[in-house]
Amino acid sequence: MSQPVKIEIPASVAVFVRPGTALDERLRGASGAVPLAPRELLILLFCLSKDSEQAVRELVASTLVRLKKEVILSALDGTPYHPAVLHFLASSRGAEELIRDALTSYQGVADATRKLLDSFVTVQLTENHVESDELQPDAEESDYSQELPPDADRLLEDELHADLDEDGEEYFSKYKMAQVMGIGEKIKMALTGDKEWRKILVKDANKLVSAGVIKNPRMSEPEVLTLLKSGVQNDEIMRLICSNKEWVKNYQIRKALIENPKTPLANALRYLGTMNEKDVAGYAKSRNISSVVATMAKRMLMNKKK
To answer: Does pTM top 0.85 for this prediction?
Structure first.
């Protein structure tokens, strides 16, 4: 059985990893979108790579392969790290020559890490020996070899997906990309992505992903209205929409909430009281809304006639 890894954690990192930290905060840390120095960021990603939530661990893997080489080299300034942190980095980015050289210079690097780094060199030397002149220009475009040690396979796949994100949809549509993304990547994209990404990910079966779309600060009222009219069946999405005070100021959104059977009844009845007489009359006759809402609409009309 492996022994627990004990490392000194800076206070700036501890706020993201201490027991009881909310999932949203851990995901934010795993995305790398936090104001930390390079060394602290590397330690944070290592700690969150051990998180109990798969979504957090997958997002860490994606973030590490996307992280700029300059940031990593800045973190590798000679300051000692726990060997497990260095192995964590080597497993993901050890195929890159500059990072590999920086890691190799650390005296605290474990033997297993050195063997891993040597394996990258061996693979690259072998490829350089057998590849044809026709293939050599392609080989120069990437620091990664075509054959990597098993530990790096998944991370290399994440690197490919990251490249596709940055290059747009030249090779795959965003929909196809979503099919191969990990949960962590989807959550990050849901929270930060553009309108096309939001339209795709709001339908995701994982509630952390679909709810992330509603929390995206770029989510607009027209999008919310379209989503409600589409007959969304996700309870968490409905709860988040109802809790957004700005959105429910919009008459058409309140109207769509009343007409959606997944809207919490208490909210639907509250919004009913803000509708004009014509809409209330329509609800009193409607068979497409909650019977409780329809009955309340009838009572409202009767009270106005008294």
So the answer is: no
